[in-house]
Amino acid sequence: MSKKSCVLIVCPECGNDTDFVEVADDVIITTRYVQNNDSSFTQEDDESQVLGEIKFYCGECNADLSSFHQRFLAMLF
Ligand SMILES: [Zn+2]
Questions:
Q1: Which of 16, 37, 52, 62 gives 26 a disulfide partner, CB atoms 3.0 to 4.6 angstroms apart?
Q2: pLDDT tens readout for residues 5-35
Q3: Among residues 47, 52, 49, 45, which one has the least CA distance to residue 66?
Q4: What is the value of pTM for the model shown?
């Protein structure tokens, strides 16, 4: 087994280390469009604002892994 330099997030309940679910409450998604001369639209900007809490769950057993969420964000590319 090769040892990686990073520490995997592992669900303490079921040992799952591959499937995770992020759930955001109260999200406002605002998208700006510019209308072109030929009446088509071009998307300019896409900003989403999370007003509520962001929860992080195990994808296998749905255990609440929100304490790992910061680490998840740091490793998200
Ligand atoms: Zn789990």
A1: 52
A2: 578 999 999 999 999 999 999 999 999 999 9
A3: 52
A4: 0.69
